[in-house]
Amino acid sequence: MAEYRMFTDPAGQPSHRPDPAFLVHADGERTVAQVDGPVVRVLRFDAHGNVLGHVHVHTASTAGELTTVMGTAAASVLPLPGTAQLRATAGSVTLVVRTHPDDVLICRLVYAPGHGYRLLRRTRIRP
After folding, report:
1. Rounded to two decimals, what is the model's pTM?
2. CATH topology classification for 21-126
């Protein structure tokens, strides 16, 4: 398995990025999401800390991406800019990322043992 250093930069120096989002699943496995500029690293670990799967989600807009406009009052419950939230939802994981300038990217990911995460849906929300 590849080694992942989520809390250091490529030179091995300590990272000054925001704390990662963290989710514990019913089976004891854990999912972690770390925002690193335009990329969010989502990793799944077993109870012993071994990496089971990973995916990199790019936060830049994509062609044909579903975009919704939202009132600014609803933005207060969203993560801070440059941070992420994770929620377990019916066998999948929902990733919510506040991107620059104030867009919100919502991704639904499903995990399959031996295959890792797969993106099911991606939606961008603009205030």
Report:
1. 0.75
2. Lipocalin (2.40.128)
